[in-house]
Amino acid sequence: MPVIGGWATAGRPYTTLAVLAPWWLIPVLGCGHRPHRVPRDPAVPERKQLLAEKVLKGDVRATARLIRKIDDGDRQVFSDLRKLYPHSGRSHIVGFTGAPGVGKSTLVDQMVSKFRQNGKTVGILAIDPTSPFTGGAILGDRVRMQKHSTDNGVFIRSMATRGAFGGLTRSTDDAIVVLEAMGKNVVIVETVGVGQDEVEIVHSAHTTIVVTVPGMGDDIQAIKAGLMEIGDLFVVNKSDRQGAAKTIRELEFMLHMSDKRSGVEGWTPRVIAAEAMTGKGVDELYEAILEHRAHLEAGDGERLKALQAIRVTNQLLDLLRENLVQSALKRLGGRESLKQVVRDIVEKRTDPYGVCFELTEKLLGGGPD
Q1: pTM as predicted
Q2: What pLDDT digit, counting tens, does each position of 163-179 carry?
Q3: Interval 236-256: pLDDT, tens
Q4: CA angle 12, 17, 21 (to 5 degrees)
Q5: Residue 239 three-state SS
Q6: Residue 234 contacts residue 250 (beta carbons within 8 Å)
Q7: Distance CA 357, CA 206 (A)
Q8: Residue 282, C-beta contacts closer than 8 angstroms, at least 6 positions apart
């Protein structure tokens, strides 16, 4: 019995007319009797293709779907991430951070064009602030990069912070793994506008670029503390403004005086004047990024391995925290039971220390050290 498209035709010619006709007209038309489904062999299980397999082939839709699942906290993505992880670690991860309004998105847009001109494929993760009312994000960064939306060599994904601090979202590292496995040569992570101590990007990026502008009051006050210590490159954007030269001098002086930098050994941060709207300084920044990458890979690549170790350590700790919290909630009986425990703590019937000890004992067989 010939089978076409999963339907049996009882040896009769299979015609378009037979497909369109009602079943009770098929004998009249001479196309055989009413078709029936060919039973599937139960010994041969249907195989659902993992999104990871499509990502490895460069499938854009599969990549977008997987990152969406990651961003939504879908724990079923772990099987995909485990399959993708051996294919990660080959991209150069560049982080852009700085205060809101300094022109990070416009600068990233220019840098993407520069990378593409040099034959590099680029993945972009733009972190947008989440609305405290709707839980959504404006996704303004994606709007500013519309000219790259039709470029097959560029993948752009906006991600909401969902209440996370530090300028990144918890799922950023997992999304980076996906883009690396997809085959992107460069992965750019643009953080949400940050303050002085929100410096999580240094745990994810190989090259961290701090962007500032003149005229932010006390210029050094605007970017000192944590940001001063993590930047591998500093960009003074909108350098056509009054006071740009003063900002550059102060930055260079502060970097020279700093003895608490967490950057790469042997690397001296550079301060670059730029005007992202006109493209000024983009070539210099591009060359500086390449120089920093070459510095990381120099010798036997120990500097790059050290950065990878920091990234993996933080990723592992984040995963452990997430899994332990999920397990603790399950032990409590879900979020509704958590609300009851919180009420008991508020009304002083118990305390958070005792609850924590009890849960830890149930989860790990012993209380916290």
Answers
A1: 0.78
A2: 554 446 668 899 999 99
A3: 999 999 889 988 988 888 887
A4: 100
A5: coil
A6: no
A7: 38
A8: 107, 110, 111, 114, 274, 276
CB neighbours (10 Å) of residue 121?
A: 20
CA proximity to 35, closest of 52, 19, 51, 16: 19
- Token pair recorded at residue 234: 């500093």
Q: DSSP letters along 50-101, please?
A: PHHHHHHTT-HHHHHHHHHHHHTT-GGGHHHHHHHGGG-S-SEEEEEEESTT
Highest mean pLDDT among 157-171, 213-227, 276-290, 317-331: 276-290
Give the Cβ contact number of residue 77 at 10 Å: 24
DSSP label of 43: T
Express each pLDDT in 127-173 by its tens digit: 876 555 455 555 554 555 677 878 899 999 888 766 554 446 668 89
Among residues 219, 224, 225, which one has the least CA distance to residue 237? 219
Strand-pair category, 7-8 with 3-4: antiparallel
One-letter amino acid for residue 78 of the chain:
F
Residue 16's pLDDT band (boundaries 50, 70, 90)?
very low
Residues near 76 by Cβ (< 8 Å), separated by ≥ 6? 69
Q: Which of 335, 330, 340, 311 is nearest to 93 (CA)?
A: 311
Domain range summary for the chain, segments of one domain joined by +: 1-46, 56-298, 311-364
Domain 56-298 has CATH 3.90.79.10: no
Going by C-beta distance under 8 Å and a sequence separation of 6 or more, which residues neighbour residue 245? none
Length of the chain: 369
**Closest to 63 in 3D by CA, of 87, 33, 31:** 87
Dig out the tokens for 136 from the structure: 């959504």
193: left (phi over 0), alpha (psi -120 to 50) or beta: beta
Beta strand 233-236 pairing with 207-212: parallel
Nearest Cα to Cα of residue 282 among 143, 116, 135, 141: 116
